[in-house]
Specification:
mainly beta, two-stranded antiparallel ribbon
Length: about 200
């Protein structure tokens, strides 16, 4: 009986002529003013084209910054990814479908935030100063969100569960107990609504 061959995909970063392997990517994206979109793109390089990313313990660290104007970043689904996003002003759209995320951290100051979650497990933190936060999960993913809103509403599956000033609580999507994968979110919003679907 033949056993299947198990392979680990490794990418390589060239450091001083020697190749350093990495198995995952720690990606930090920082945008100033303008609409900002992050989405999976099969043709993207795992390191956004960086030829010599810093590699430590098998993790390549990559940073990218864009100051003014709209920005769309295609992220490779080829390797696991820890994603940090910082955005000052504008609409932020994170379409994380197709990505394998090990962690995610989002800090957004002013504007609406739209997140489409991946189909696997994830723990993530979201801070939004002023603007609405919309989280959409695949049918196979249950979401548990610890939410703190200074002023606004919280809706789960299109049903309002809390509103007013200093709203705090943990809320779950109706499919949480039966879903294959779980996403745990920490969401802090100064002024705006939170919508979990």
């Amino acid at each position: 009986m033949r056993r299947p061959l198990l392979m680990t995909v490794l990418a390589f970063a060239s450091l001083g002529g020697a190749a350093t392997p990495y198995r995952s990517v720690d990606l930090t994206l920082t945008q100033g003013t303008g609409d900002f979109t992050v989405r999976a793109m099969a043709s993207a390089s795992p390191t956004l084209g960086a030829r010599t990313p810093s590699v430590r313990d098998g993790v390549a660290s990559v940073r990218a910054v864009h100051q003014v104007g709209d920005w769309t970043v295609g992220v490779s689904p080829k390797l696991p990814l820890a994603l940090t996003v910082r955005h000052e002003t504008g609409t932020l759209t994170l379409d994380l479908r197709g990505l394998t995320l090990t962690a995610a951290s989002v800090n957004h100051e002013v504007g609406d935030l739209h997140v489409t979650l991946p189909s696997g497990p994830l723990s993530a933190s979201i801070v939004n100063g002023q603007g609405n936060v919309s989280i959409t999960a695949p049918a196979t993913v249950g979401v548990s969100a610890t939410v703190s809103v200074t002023r606004g509403h919280v809706r789960v599956a299109d049903r309002e569960v809390a509103n007013g000033l200093n709203v705090t609580g943990t809320y779950r999507t109706p499919n949480y107990a039966t879903s294959k994968h779980h996403v745990k979110l920490s969401i802090v919003v100064n002024e705006g609504d939170v919508d979990l679907r």
